[in-house]
Amino acid sequence: xxxxxxxxxxxxxxxxxxxxxxxxxxxxxxxxxxxxxxxxxxxxxxxxxxxxxxxxxxxxxxxxxxxxxxxxxxxxxxxxxxxxxxxxxxxxxxxxxxxxxxxxxxxxxxxxxxxxxxxxxxxxxxxxxxxxxxxxxxxxxxxxxxxxxxxxxxxxxxxxxxxxxxxxxxxxxxxxxxxxxxxxxxxxxxxxxxxxxxxxxxxxxxxxxxxxxxxxxxxxxxxxxxxxxxxxxxxxxxxxxxxxxxxxxxxxxxxxxxxxxxxxxxxxxxxxxxxxxxxxxxxxxxxxxxxxxxxxxxxxxxxxxxxxx
Length: 309
Prior knowledge:
The chain is built from 13 helices and 6 strands.
């Protein structure tokens, strides 16, 4: 039966392990599988939407993994697509249940914008995270004191308890770097991010010392793009690229804005950012000299703290 082969393909993806895949990755993978089944039967999105009492746009959201699944909807779609054998249906429905499981960040729902939820899930599932930061040290590498200063500055007027909840969320995110099978993290920092004072001198010094320690981890690479670099970056702000172990998951470019974010997945959209990140990695200082760069800035901070010229 052709549909059985398609369903088996879902668990034959290189790197696929449901124990290591969070709900966001599973949701995308289940959506991809539903799309393949629909297309193999040459059924339109409109017809599929009608079958589950929805619209073609709902089918599009489901197939892109942008929304959670109702088990009844998935069961009805499997019937429509000719998947009738119990074992085959249960394989997809079981993954659907896992995809609907709330992520740990739901504990912080009151301080997580809707547009940021998907990023938290993708970050947890990524096998490699590449990021370029212009203004601040990336969240995954921030100390508690530095993060509190950044959050306080960005949420002026917020109650202290809300600041602390956002801080707790950021500190929780850092755990992915010390867990088994941690993702590879490749950071290019503009020199301005190292020199921009956040908090007081001791806060900044502590942050820089922490960066040096994190750079010692075998799966963490930190490079500095010096002020002397005269290449054209085109006013680009922070960029994060996520790559996944599951071969069926496309690379994602995440571009955060003031009150929203863009998630780019089409190859034509992602490629220019891949090229830019490669260029930045080439022109940034080698990671081997990052500790020396950081030490120089720490010495300048120490002189300021001690009041010596």
